[in-house]
Write a structure and sequence with these properties.
Arc Repressor Mutant, subunit A, 6-stranded mixed β-sheet, 3-stranded antiparallel β-sheet, DNA binding, magnesium ion binding, Restrct_endonuc_II_BsuBI_C, type II site-specific deoxyribonuclease activity, BsuBI/PstI_C_sf
């Protein structure tokens, strides 16, 4: 069972037994207290309130290996973990919050350092600062210790702490410290996904996609579209919206006005039928002449691991394997 099914089963069991699905507070911090603190720092929406409440949870961590090492939910939770806690356990819905919504209910809080990015390093069972591997399933979030201190401070004290915490000079120093810590963590974790993305456009595209120019690379976990990328996309006559499927690499041929999408797979994310349809719609909406697709893998072993059971590569797309770089394999069903 996945985390959504587990959460639904847990909630239904509590309801049938007449017990509370969740406690009314974590370490004395209630939803009302969170609401008042977020209002004081001008970052208050229902999604943010519930997201913070989830990140205060003291229950065992939802990374199974982390739970076995006595980590709590609050030490690090993925977007899916947080969305499931909010959507199913807090609200009683049948599904988690939309992942893309993180730009509304996580980003405003990590921009001021209330939420920190974290990464569960399963090799040594530790949570590292930052997101050293782009789009990794181990990328997580947690509340900063300083922000937790404000939330847990008694009435009459937290107000002054929040006012001092949100001052601009203090904010700059806090964000710089977090960035420095994340950069150090990145040095210790090799990003296989980043390496494959680089090979996909520097090796594969150079050989097999003559005339195409790179207009977008999704190799980060901050703003999904930077100002520089938005400018490059605009020059190609393209606009990416929040709901669009975000390809690892997007290329454009200025002569034919056609696009090409590359998805680099080290854990998941192939060009399946859903992604193909989404990006065809994107291509048509932007008035382009057509679009092609390639899924890239680092090795034949990784390809076999993924495709021996899934068989999810969409028809009339291509597959390229980095260790067998001379071949461009056409997928026909």
């Amino acid at each position: 069972m996945g985390i959504v099914d587990d959460a639904i089963a847990r909630r239904d069991k509590c309801i049938s037994e007449g017990t509370n699905v969740l406690p009314s507070n974590y370490n004395g911090v209630t939803v009302d207290k969170i609401t008042r603190v977020l209002s004081r720092i001008d970052r208050c929406t229902n999604n943010m309130i519930e997201g913070v409440f989830a990140l205060l949870s003291t229950e065992p961590n939802w990374f199974k290996k982390a739970a076995l090492n006595n980590y709590q939910f609050r030490h690090g939770a993925t977007t899916a973990h947080i969305g499931t806690h909010v959507g199913i356990l807090q609200r009683g819905n049948r599904d988690k919050l939309d992942r893309e919504g993180r730009d509304y209910w996580l980003k405003p809080l990590w921009e001021i350092g209330a939420i920190e990015k974290a990464y569960f390093n399963s090799k040594d069972c530790t949570f590292l600062p930052g997101h050293p591997k782009a789009k990794s399933p181990n990328s997580a979030y947690r509340l900063s210790d300083e922000f937790i201190s404000i939330l847990e401070a008694p009435e009459g004290e937290w107000q002054e702490m929040a006012e001092a915490w949100i001052q601009e000079d203090v904010l700059r120093e806090r964000l710089k410290l977090q960035a420095d810590q994340a950069e150090e963590a990145k040095k210790s974790v090799e990003s296989a996904h980043s390496i494959l993305i680089a090979a996909s456009h520097k090796v594969y595209a150079k050989r097999f996609l003559k005339g195409y120019e790179v207009v977008y690379i999704d190799d980060g976990d901050g703003d999904r579209i930077t100002d520089e990328q938005a400018h490059t996309l605009a020059q190609a006559g393209l606009t990416l919206k929040l709901g669009d499927a975000m390809p690892d690499v997007l290329l454009w041929n200025p002569v034919t006005d056609k696009l090409w999408v590359i998805e680099a797979v080290t854990s998941d994310g192939e060009v399946d039928n859903h992604k193909k349809a989404s990006l065809i719609e994107f291509t048509e909406r932007n008035g382009k002449a057509g679009v092609g697709f390639t899924t890239t893998y680092p090795t034949w072993k990784k390809t076999a691991e993924r495709q021996s059971q899934l068989k999810n590569l969409a028809d009339d797309t291509y597959m390229w394997i980095q260790e067998d770089a001379s071949r461009n394999i056409h997928i026909k069903q």
